[in-house]
Design brief:
Elements (H helix, E strand, L loop, with lengths): L20 H8 L3 E5 L2 E4 L1 H20 L3 E2 L5 E3 H7 L1 H4 L5 E4 L5 E4 L4 H11 L8 E10 L14 E11 L2 H22 L3 E5 L9 E8 L5 E5 L6 E3 L5 E2 L19 E4 L6 H8 L7 E7 L5 E7 L6 H8 L4 E2 L23 E6 L8 E4 L5 E6 L9 E3 L9 E2 L7 E15 L1 H5 L3 E3 L5 E3 L1 E8 H11 L1 E2 L2 E2 L10 E5 L5 H16 L4 E4 L5 H11 L3 E5 L1 H6 L1 E6 L6 E4 L3 H7 L1
Parallel strand pairs: 3-7, 16-18, 18-21, 29-30, 29-31
Antiparallel strand pairs: 1-2, 4-6, 5-6, 7-8, 8-26, 9-10, 10-23, 11-12, 11-23, 13-22, 14-20, 15-16, 15-17, 19-20, 23-26, 24-25, 27-28, 31-32, 32-33
Amino acid sequence: MKFTNYFLPTLKEDPADSDIISHSLSIRAGLIRKVASGIYSFLPLGYKVLKKIENIVREEMNNAGAIEIFMPVMQPAEIWQQSNRWYEYGPEMFKLTDRSGRDFCLGPTHEELITTMASNDIFSYKDLPINLYQIQVKFRDEIRPRYGLLRAREFIMKDAYSFAAKEDELDKDYDAMYKAYSKIIERIGLKYKVVEADTGLIGGNFSHEFMILAKNGEETIAYCDNCNYAANIENAKFNISDCSDNDSKNINEEYKEIEEIYTPGIKTIENLVNFLNQPSKKIIKTIIVKNLKNDIFAFLLAGDRTLNLSKAEKFLKTNLELINEENNIYNLPIGFIGPIDLKKEISIYADYSIKQMSNMIAGANKADYHFKNINTDRDFKVNGWGNFSYPLPGDLCENCGGELNYIKGIEVGHIFKLGTKYSEKLNGKFLDKDGMLKPYVMGCYGIGITRMMAAAIEQSHDEKGIIWPKSIAPFLINLIVTNINEIEMKSAADNAYNMMLKNKIEVLYDDRNVSAGIKFKDSDLIGIPIKVIFGKKFLKDKIIDIEYRDNTPKIEIKSNELEDFVKNL
C-alpha cells in the first residue's frame, strides 16, 4: 500500500481527553477516532490490527475444537428476566423497547441467549460435549468510560460457551480454553500472567483471568515467585506476616487499662495517626455495611488496610452496601465508630490483621472521642474472623509462605466454570444415558479483541510511539524514500515495492513528498516493525538501511541483497 493512496491521518499532539498512553497513541497513530464517550470508529490501520488479532483467536479456538457461530446483539428481555440478571445487571445494561412495546437489551454477554438456543437443539448426551463461540460486538453502559478502548461502552469480544454432560467433561473444556488463551497471547507476543479471579456477575464457582503485564494496568496482581501462585488482588489468598507491621512490640503485649481520648474532628486514619503519633496498624478501622434486608454488619481491620467488599459478601453470602455520611439512616457517628458499645443489632466480624494485635485504638461511638488500649475478647466480642482485606507488601503466599509480589496488569481474557447456573434457570436440559433429563454443565470463555489491541500498546511502546509485535502489526515493512524527487532513488524504491508485493509482504510505501524527518517520526509513531530506507547511502554506494522498531541494532545491506532479506522474513 502506498501512503499517498492510504487513509492514515496521524497527529502530532496528544488528544485532550486521553488519560492513558494506549488511548493517546491509538488516536495519534490514526487507529481510532472518537464518536462519543466510550464509542470509537476504527480507521484502516486499527482495523487491520483488529483483524489480525481476530484471526489468531479464531485459529486457536478452531484448533481447540470450538465451533464458530454468530448471534444477534439484540436480545429479548424475557430470557434475562428468567435468569434474573435483567434486574441484577443494573444500569450498565443498555435496554430498549421496540415499536410494539417489547423490551430488549443490547447484549453485554450471551449466556442467556446461547443457553436458550442450545435447549432447542441439543437434546441428548450423545450431542455433548460441544463448545460454540462467536466474535461479536458487545455493549456495556459504563458509568465512567475511560482509558479509550480499555473501558469502552461498545467493544468487540470473542465469547465461547461449552456444554457438557458431566463435571469432568467441563474440566476438559476449561483446560482446553486455558491452553488456547495462553497460546493466543503467546502467538501475539505479549508478557502475561494467568490469575485466580472473582466470578462476579457472570457467576459460577471458579474462574481465571488472563492479564497482560503493563505499568498502567488497571488491575493489581499478587503473585509468588516461589510457587508461581498468582491472583487478582481482589481474589488473592494470603497470610498476614506476624512481622509485617515491623513493630512486634504491639503483638501480644500485656493488656493495658482502656482510656477514652478526646479527638476533636479527627475522623480519618491519617489524621488520627498524626494526632496520636501512633502507627496506622495499631488503629482499628471499623467499616459499617448493610444488605438489602437492612441487616447491619461491622467489619474491623487494621488501619493500614482496605475492606475487600467482595470477600465480605462471599463470607456473609449477601450483597452489601457501605454506610457513609450520605446514607447514614442509623445515626452512627461516622469517623468515630468502634466495636465497644456498638449497637446490639450490628454483628461484628474481624479481619485477621488485628487478631494478634494488643492495646489498639478505635472509635468510642460518640463524636470527637476514641478509645485507647482496647483488646479483642476482653473489651468486645467478634462474631467471626476472616480474611476481609487486600494484601499488602510483607504478606505471605498462602500456598508456600513466600512473600507476595505485586505487578500491574490489564485483563484481556476471563474463563469461567459456570456449572448449571444458567441451564437450570433457562430449562437447558438433555437426556442422559440413564434416561433422565439433566441440566447442561456449562463453561464460558471471553477474550477482548479491542482490549487486546490497547493492552499490546500499553505493554509495547516508547516515547516515539507504538512498537507492534510482528504478529499483529498492520504492516511488516515501512518502505521509506528520503527524497521522493530523486529519480534514481524513487525508481529503485518503486522496484523494491513491487518485489515486496510479489513476495506477499505487507508493506507501507511512504511515497509522500515530505521531509525524511516527518516520515521517520510517523513510522515510529505507528509502530511498523521494520524500516527499509532508501537514502543518501543508496545514491553513493547502493546501500539500504534496515532499522527495527523494537531497537534491535540496525543493519546495512546492498541493494542486490534486498530480495533475499525480504524472502527470509
